[in-house]
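USER:
Class, as today's exercise, take the chain set out below, and explain how the chain folds.
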Amino acid sequence: MSASTVTVMPTARAPEGDIAPLHWQGGAIDCASCPFAALRELPQRLGCEPGHACLQDAYARRVDRFFRWHPELSDSQLEHPYFEVRAIAARHCSVFRLNGLLADPDETVRLQVALRLPLMQLHRLAGDPHREVRIRVALRLAPAALAMLRNDADYGVRELVAQRLPLALLPAMVGDADRAVRLRVAQRLEMPALLRMADDSAPEVRRIVAQRLPVPLLARMAQDVDWCVRWEVAQRADAATLATLRDDAETEVRDTVRDRLSTHLRPVPGELHG
């Protein structure tokens, strides 16, 4: 092995996680061919350190440590052929250079751009082909700007939108195709739009509606086909609605009705007898 080829330097610390230094293209790391070879002459934490902080290494943590030691070099590495180098350089580069990475072929790079791009420009990534990039966009966009993602193809993106969208715009998501999204909508929606979800196809959604619907309107859900929904109704309903649940087919519902009538509500005269 030539003197210029480095695997584990005698003075270097042990590789992290027993991951040996490996050039990002495969093979050993050759310090002599590195454009930053002069950094090896500087003290550790000022220069570089094979096996710990190295721009040639395939291990992203070592690349990241190199840029944390030398953030001033990040702008010059945004076109590096290794995607990990470009992605980590994007964490440290000038914000004015991020526009050049919007169309980077690797989603790992675009993900870093989505985390740092100024909010006024973030909409440019709203149509990114990768869901993780769009999720980061949905997390950072101003709530009023989230409407552009209401019909995103990925339910995870729409779920985030449902959590952050202004309430005035939320009724548009009542009919979302995914149950998880509608759950988020039901947790936030206000009346009268909330009433539209009392007939949702998913019992989990109807259960949330029963938890939030104004008490006078609970009667319409007292005969729900799902006993868990009826149980939620029994937890909050007035005496008149409880009367319709006294002989419910589910023991848990009947017990709740009896408990509430005996401890919190008076029976409706002529209708309930203990």
About this structure: The mean pLDDT is 89. The two ends are 93 Å apart (CA to CA).
